[in-house]
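INFO  loader      accepted 1 record
INFO  loader      residues=144
INFO  predictor   begin
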Amino acid sequence: MKRLLLVLVASLAAASCDAAHAHVRAIVHGHDSAAKAAKGHVAAFFQHGAETVDLAGKWQLTMDTPHGVAKGPLEMTQEGGKLAGSWVSDQVGTLKFTGSVEGKAVSFSMNVPNGQGSFGFKGTLDGKKMAGTTEMGGQWSATR
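INFO  predictor   done
INFO  writer      dumping tokens
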């Protein structure tokens, strides 16, 4: 039973179908070196999965801009590692954004009004707070 479970999880953890088949064959046929590699992939799969965070919901975003500090509510949705949403500020109105999260690393890009481009944010999640830097050279933070 333990071997069957390892085969199933190794298949899920493998990066491709070919790698999954190789892991399954190694475990079933008892090839130690390949079986050890499969076990490593399984461990990495569970470690990565444990770091998945849920950023969906309402946040309060504060950021430095060339015109001073801007604040407002940030509404975020999340599908897997993909982020989307909008931020509302008295200074600039509503800005849409898209981005991603991998582990605790967060990045997103807001669209500037009137199709004038976009600007990016990079940061990390720490509990109920995200913080980092913007492409404009300022700092940003968001709290739940």
